[in-house]
Amino acid sequence: MASIGHVAVGMALGRFEAGSASWKRRVALMGFLSLLALLPDADVVAFALRIPYAAPWGHRGASHSFVFAGAVALAVAALARWKGESATRWGLLTFLAVGSHGILDTLTDGGLGAALYWPFSDARIFAPVRPLPVAPIGAGMLTARGLYVSLVELLVFLPAWAYALWPVRRTRTP
C-alpha cells in the first residue's frame, strides 16, 4: 500500500483529537498521528540489512502486528502521562494509528500479507477482500503503476482526507 491511506488515517485521527483547537494544534496532532500510522513501514530498512521479506522482522512482519502497536501505544501513553495529558486517550489513539497500518496492508492484492498476530504466529494475513493494489517499493512509485496505486488510494481514502482537511466551524461566543 502506498502511504496515502496511512497518512489519511493519521490525519483523520488527529482531526478527531484536535476538535476545534487552533490550526497549529490540529496540524501538529495530524502530523504526529500520521507519523505513527506510517511507523510500521520503518521495517523497510530490513531490505538494506538483508533480512528476508518473509522473516519475522522483514517487511510487513513484526512491526505490523498488534503487539507492536500495543508497545508503541504504551510508550506514548507513558509520555502523555509524564506531560500531564490523558494516558488512556493517547494510548488508544496511538494504538488505532499504528494498528491500522497492518490491517490496511491486509487489504492489498499483493505481497506476503501482514504478521498481525506476531509473536504468537508468524503467519502473514490477508483480508478476505483485497480492494487495494499493492504499491511498488522505492523508485517503483515513480512509474505508471505507482501513479495508479496512488490514485486508487486517494479515491478510497477521500472521505478520511475530507474529514481531516474540512475547515473547522468556529462557534461564535456572545
From TrEMBL:
Regions that span the bilayer: 27-49, 61-80, 92-118, 147-166
Alphabetical keyword list: Hydrolase, Membrane, Transmembrane, Transmembrane helix
GO MF terms held by the record: hydrolase activity
PANTHER family, sorted: INNER MEMBRANE PROTEIN YBCI-RELATED (PTHR35531:SF1)
KW Signal (keyword) present: no
Protein's name according to its UniProt entry: Metal-dependent hydrolase
Keyword match Hydrolase: yes
